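Dear colleagues,

As part of the handover before I leave the project, I'm documenting each prediction I ran so the next person doesn't have to rerun anything. This entry is a single chain, and its sequence is reproduced below.
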Amino acid sequence: MSLSSLIPILAERGAKRQPCAMRSLQRRPLLVAAAAVVMLAACGKKEETPAAASSPGAASGPAAGASAPLQVAFAYVGPVGDGGWTFAHDNARKAVEKEFGDRIKTSFVEKVPEGADAERVFRDLVQQGNTLVFGTTFGYMESMLKVAADSPTVKFEHATGYKQAANMRTYDSRTYEGAYLAGVLAGAMTKTNALGVVGSIPIPEVIRNINSFTLGARSMNPKVTVKVVWVNEWFNPPQETNAAQTLINAGADVLMQNTDSSAVLQTAEKNGKYAFGWDSDMSSYGPKAHLASAVVNWAPYYSASIKAALDGTWAAGTGKHSWWGVKEGAIDLVSINTVVPAEVRARVEKVKAGLKDGSFVIWKGPLLGQDGKEVLAKDQVADDRFLQGVKFYVQGVEGQVPTGK
């Protein structure tokens, strides 16, 4: 996830991200130093095996006289099998491997802590000969900047950040579009008019998703209210389970999450309620409960970036930030349950089409905050600066946005 007025907000976001979870600086709980060293050693081993096994040109190398393959590395904050954020990034890595064949050679390191320890991993990736490096969580920002400054011939891509350099640019996905689409289904399917969201870290990204989910739901059912339970982590299945159960006990019969495991969906399945997958298709984790999955497809962006690196058009520098959504094929709502009525499916498809061609806008006035005050005037469309600074609830969301650290 870059405007000067946004830096304090994103800095706060950075201060809250934890290691080994997804999407930002306090995305995962901090590891003690000794554990971090052991983990990084293990991650280094993990990096080599998948690269050799999954890169089509790795076994025999390029043909005589051919150019050496572009070495592309990915640093992941979570395990590739998390079923969510990191899983989605790794699926995209595999997709570009298949697309470019022996023109590239990819590798990855999973479970890389955010913060200072990440710097060692990035330096190691550079020393291994990688010339295009993707860091897939907010907490890598400062570490990547340091390594980028010392490695001017290497291209760096940072997911969800806001700081760029001469050889480092940033990219993100409009997950709030997927949240809105999920809301459309939730508003139509609820019987109690009470929806629940398991929130991770109360930063603009997550608050924006909760609000968008609420807007989508209330577009179908104005009586809907949304309850939120915060777990203050990105990946903690036991806490996610407890939060989901709390919401169900409070009357919510459809749940959404902004966390990275499948725990919320599995809890809904056990309780005979509905829920959504997040970041990746989680339908297999709770087939009866699963209404749909709001997924991120990183492959279009990774493909474009790698192509640019190969043909010499890749460019970075101030302002080089990409924020892709439904229009670019980066966001979708997939695997919609057959219990969803045809007219509701049709509404989802209509919104998708509108997001794709620009005829539909989610954040458009008149729009009121939870306190009843106007946040967007009639026909006013929120720009990216507004969206990246959302720290309030819209009408329909219960409770207060957490403050402090």
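The domain at 4-174+298-327 is CATH 3.40.50.2300 (Rossmann fold). The chain is about 40% helix and 15% strand.

All the best with the project,
I.
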